[in-house]
Every structure is written in structure tokens, then in C-alpha cells.
Amino acid sequence: MLGRLAGRPVSRPTRLLLLSGVILAATGWLAGWPPTSWRGWERIVEDELVRWRGPRQPPAKVVLVSIDDASLQQGAWFAEEPNPPAWAQGISTLPWPRARYAELIERLQAAGAASIAINVVFEGPSGRGPQDDRALAAALGRHRGQVALAAEYTEPQDEQAGAGLGLVQPDAFTAALGLTNVMPSGGGEPVRHPEFFSQVVLPAQQLPPFPALSSMALAQARLPSLQRDSSRELNFYGPEPSLTRIPAWEVLDPARWGRHPKRAALQGAVVLVGPVVSQGGMGSPTPFGPMSGLEMLATATANSLVGDGLAPWPAVPWARALVAMAPVLLVALVFLRNTTKLQWRMSALGVVLVLQLLAGYALLRWGHRWLPLLAPITALVLVGGVYGVDAYLVEGRERRRLRRTFERYVAPSVVSEILSSPEDADAILRGRLLPVTVLFCDLQGFTTLTKRRSDAGQTQHLVEQLNAYLTEMVEVITAHGGTVDKFIGDCVVAVFGSPVSRGVQEEAVAAVQCAQAMGQALAQLNQGWQLKGIEPLGNGIGLASGEVVVGQIGSPRRMEFTVIGEKVNLAARLEALTRKLEVNVLLDGATMDLARAQVAFRPMGLQPIRGAGDIDVYTLA
Q1: CA angle, corner 248, sides to 246 and 250, nearest 5?
Q2: Number of folded domains that form the chain
Q3: Residue 308 sits in the same domain as residue 447
């Protein structure tokens, strides 16, 4: 489908743009209007980010007085005594006597608490008699406007009662009321502030809004909420317990409370009282593990007090979609316009992914906002995969093209070295000036031999002999690290130092040693031919060192990777001079100077060379 459009082939850039557009549209949709399953995965990412951020410092002005296992155990211990103190009576089991809550109110108010919220629903009369209710009512009357009690909306238990929520609240006490209901998390839903239930869920059920207990605790203390609670999620301070906590029995025990180290923390604080008994795995799930209802209530109160509750950013879906799409669009455009190199694309993608994660972390830690992460990160990985595959294919095609080009001229090991950097390989093909040693090797008297053997009807045998000779010469050149530049009939042109060089001196030595080895190889071939009655061959070799132009030269229909320049002509002239001087190898002074430390030479004096004048030439000693 993507390969053809309206019956016509689609270009590579167009295919990439179409794929990028599909990924970009999906990114915006998933970030702005995520389905339920995607929201669940996104919540996993956000929880991991919270754990990565780790615990943080809660406000000191929110204190919990917990009815915990230690308080129940203390009550059980005193219950076994003959004359247990009045404050310990009835606290070994739940529910506690309401008179104990009255005593907690009195002690906490005496310690300077700004307000008290009791996270217990006192439904109906006390099972311990009217005196128990009167004790709590008296304490509430003495501290009117400073204590809030809990109410709760519940689903009806009786099927005949019909559907809908029913309010459970204290009937016998006059005090401010606040809801303890919270929306359960799960299915991708965050842990929302209790005011979400009060201000959003209740109106949706055709019920009037009812303030949350956390909001009433702040209102009783005359402290404003610094955020819009109904639109925020809980921003946890760490695993339970994270906020300041005092076991309830320590407040009730006069001897212990009089010298308690945390008593000063109650001055001007919002105090939340309630059970946290044996939560274990029974609490509400949070990024830091299960959490009791009292700790959740305290977290909501602290978030409101500080204004650090969590919320998605941006707030509206279309803006979140744009923010999620931005890095994906940027990466796709950069990849499409700048380069096709796989390594560069993967490195750039890695940098953008890290920056995206760091941006999400920074916004969570210091801005208390959720940046869309899962959709753009997934899209970046997909874009990286699409463009990575594209770069791999393009790079593979380029490597195959370069390999086919160079394998015609150089040894496979040299090809591998060249292809380790395709950019350098392209530079080699485009042309550059290199110091090299050029070797010309031509057969002596081959034209006459060709005519004679052709007249004798031995053309095929001549071609077979020439191919065997050239094959052996190429093997010797390759073994010494040379590059076969071209064949000119029976002449072999080789270059040492192109397309890659081991060093000017080392290349010159290799060229001279190669000339020696070529002579030895020809001698062995001649021995075999003589045994078969085939006429032997002789050759001449010319060597010259210096700078030449190296590159791919020719027309678009026929290109050759070759060398041109004065030193190429000089090597050819020296090879031709071997016949006159009756030697097998001649080289110029530059080659002799480079190789003299390792090879012995014999001077042949000044010789006139066409195009170069009189120059000193040398042969092998």
C-alpha cells in the first residue's frame, strides 16, 4: 500500500512522511483522549516516575493521631490490671467509647491544635449508653467550630431500598461534617483528591455537593486551600507513615502526654484522628504501597494546605495532544532532512528520549504536573524504528555500492577498512591528492610473440598463458598490499598507498619488494611452461614515487577508480627504459630514497626521460 499510491511508485521520502503522519496522529489521540486500557499503562509509567522521584518532605502542620495496633495492645494490657485507669477503659477493641474521643479532643485542643477532624462515622446512639454520647457532645460543645466529624455516602445494602447513594452521618451531635468518601483508583484512574467525589461525583448522581472531611479540617482551622482540590490527584509524600504521627494511647495517657516530644508539633496544626489498625495489604493502592484511609486523608489535607496536588499538564486534551506530538514531529523532520546515517539517528533518538523523561521528571518534582510521557515515548521509539530501518537499508545499499566499486581494485581486507567509514570512502571516490608509489609491469616482446603464435594458430593457448601470468601478478600485488589500478593489454598498473596508506615509506618498500616477488613468480611460471614446451615470457617493471590524483574518473556510463599525474607517466617511461638498459626493474630517485634502508640498489646514471628530462635511475642490486 505504501509502496504505491494511485498506481504509481511512492518515493522513499513520501513513504517516510506518510508513516510519520500516522504515528503523529496516533500520538495526539492517545495523549489527549486515551482509551481506558492505554490510561492504565500510562498510570504505570506515572507511578514509576513517582517512585523514581522518591519520598519528599510533608508539611509539619498536618498531624495524625492514630488508633493503631499499639493503642489497642496498650488497652488490652491495662484491661488485665485490677484497677485500670479511666483513660484506658474500652480501648482494647474497636469501636472505642465515644468518651475516649472526647478526651482526645480536650487534650489536643489544650496542646494548641488549630482544628481536629475525626475520621470515624458516629452512626446512631453509643452502645455504651447515653452517658458515652453526652461526654462527646459536651466536648464538641466546648470546642464548637474547631472539630469536624465524618459522614459517608454508601451504596444501599437492602435491595428494596432502590439504587443510589445513601448518606450516613452522626445524628446526636452538633458539629461540622465532612465526607470521607474517595474515588477508588484502578483501571487507569489516578488517586483523586476527596473533593472530586464531593464536587464532581455527587452532582453527577443528582445529589448536592458535600465538602470532604479534609476540606472541613482546613476550614475549621481557617486555612485556605491553595489549589482547586476537585481537579487534583493526591501527591504522596512517601510510604506510610510519612506525615507526623502520634499513637492515640500516648495522647490519652496523662503521664506520657505531659512529657511527649511531639506535643509541640500540635501548636497551630490540623490534627486528623482515626484508626489505622492492621492495614497490611488492605489499604488503598498507591505508588509507595498500600495506604490507610487516615494517611490518605492526611495526604489530601497536606496537598490542599501546600497546593502541591498533582494534575495533568496541559489541562485540556487538545493542548496535551500538541505537547505530546511536538518532540515526535521534531525528530521526524530532523531525521528526514539531515542525514541517513543509522548511528547518528539512533544517537539523536536516544538524546530526545532522555530529554523527554527528564522533562517529565522535572515537571513532576518541581511543578507537580503530569507531562504526557507514554504516548510520545512510544511514538519516538516507533519513529526511531521506521527511520532506523530506513537508514539501515540506505546505508546497506551504499555499502554494497562502495564494496562493488572497491572490490574491483583492492584486496577484501582493504575494502573492509575503507567501508568502516562510508564518508571517507565517498571522499576517496570523489578525488584527492595522495603520495603513492606507482608500479608499471609490461611484458617484453609480447607484440611480436602474439603475431607469431597467432600465425601458428595458437591464439587460445596464448590467451590462456597471458591469463595465467596476469593472475599470478595480481596475486603478488595483492599480497604486498598494492591496488591493481588497471590492465592495459598485457601491462599491469598497480598503486601502493591508495586508496588507504600504511605510510609513504612503507608503501615504497612494499612496491619494491613486490617488484622483486613479481620477477620470482614469473621465473617459476617460466619453468613450468618450459617443461610443457611453451615459450617463456619476460617483463619489465618501472617504479616512481610522489603525489598523484586519485579518484573515480570517466563518464557516467563508464567510471574507473584510477590515478593520474606526472609520477604515473614517469613509471611508464621507466618500464619502457628497462629494454634499453637490459634490466628487469628501474625506479626513480624518490623511490630509492624511501626504500634504501631495507633494499639494496645499483645506480644506472642519468637517463633522458621524455617529459621529465635527465634523471637518476636505479635498479635492484
Answers
A1: 75
A2: 3
A3: no
